[in-house]
Specification:
By secondary structure, this protein is of the alpha+beta class. The protein is built from eleven helices and twelve strands. It has a five-stranded antiparallel β-sheet with strand order 2-1-5-4-3, with helices on both faces. The protein has a five-stranded mixed β-sheet with strand order 7-9-10-12-11. It has a two-stranded antiparallel ribbon with strand order 6-8. The two termini are about 65 Å apart. It binds adenosine-5'-diphosphate. The site of adenosine-5'-diphosphate (ADP) has 19 residues, from helix 9 and helix 11.
Length: about 475
Amino acid sequence: MRFLCLKNVSIKWKLFFFLLLFCSVLLAVLWIFQVVLLDSIYKNIKIGEVKNSATAIVSNIGNDNLKTLVDRISSENDVCIEIITQNGQNVYTSHILPDCIIHRMAVFDKLSLYARTISEGGELLEYYDRSGFRDSFYQSRDFAGRVPPNDNGLLDVIIYSRIMTNEAGEASVVLINSVVSPVSATVKTLRYELYFITAFMLIFAVVLAFIIARHVSRPIVKLTGKAAHLSAGDYDADYSVTGYKEIEKLSSTLGLAAAELDKVEHLRRELIANISHDLRTPLSLISGYAQAMRDLPGENTPENAQIIVDEVERLTALVGDVLNLSKLQSGVQSLNVSLYSLTQNVMQMITRLNELVRKDGYLIELLPCDDIYVHADESRISQAVYNLLTNAVNYTGEDKRVYVCLFRKDGRVWLEVRDTGEGIPDENITHIWERYYRSESNHKRAVTGSGLGLSIVKQIITMHGGEYGVISALGEGSTFYFNLPI
Ligand code: ADP
């Protein structure tokens, strides 16, 4: 079966080959049944019919309408029937075949047939040629249903005899004469037709297989060519290929993949630019201050050392963000859920942050609320809240105020962080939750973000089965919110 593997053959030739194979098998089956097996199938059907006719006649013995039945069976099945008594006396006869043998038989032969039938147990099937010569070799042995070879057109007449006994106990025999070869003219016509059908089907199959194979393979070949563009990094290529449903779906998926890759590539380039900028600034500051402190004793002040510490913290935060997001997205860490007071937690966080930003005049205020408990991963939710709070501080307006609000609504716990900054333009609202997205405009505060804060929030809240969002009006500020199931 090696040839069926067709490993390195193109789909076009594979399809072509299999369609052709299918057609050849169909033709072969047709030939086997119409040419090779026609004679024996016909013979078996005929013998079956003859036996059924005999059974019908035997079971109606004594019936007044037996003569009508014999006539009907005779004309319906193209057989000659004769019923004779054990003395050779003719009871019924129906003679419709011109070269019927039983009607040409001498009484002596019929009585001998009668005797043979009795000796065979009451049933006998014998083969004859059309002139009435009995096949002495196959006689009666074939009664079990075996059909003798009939190559030379001889022995195509059967005589089936069955003993029947009426109610009075008088025995008689029913003789049925039938021709068991299909009419030769019909066979010839069939074979002749079959040559034409075969030739036509083969030509038709070759053409059709070629067309189908081309039709199926062309879009695939086309799409493969386009996919090569994708692997070469050409994300703008047109990936639309028409043909059939699956290929259209595949081409649109490829188009989507290209668009996604394009986006990722764009973000990656941006990230590298951003991160290298973000890394370079603190690193050059650290290096500058450290060198000054080493070379100039007067520069070795606590203020300068603090600058180095601040910059290192900034770098640490940036690297931390990148690591956090990749950990969250890889799904390696599961949630460590517990019941805790979100109000207490947020309050502590605000106090800590206020201490850091108070020196710049910023103030975060928690609006009055109940003590609200949630089932959640405390450290992760704290991280999400922290990201929203730092963003709000970074982007809030001249009044340097940020308001936090905690409440219960619709069976969920909501947290809102409102600032009074410039707001977010509508076209950016959907993008701000994407990784590495950072707006073009500069932060109010001299703090550079990683562009990862909101995607970390999104990831954490989604993991908790919560919802997140932002309501923003240009010039009035933004309200970032999330909710968690209680
Ligand atoms: P970043 O570190 O740049 O702040 P984030 O993922 O936290 O990254 O935010 C992505 C972008 O969303 C920011 O660059 C900014 O444009 C916008 N953004 C976030 N918070 C606010 C806010 N409170 N007001 C206005 N814009 C905001």
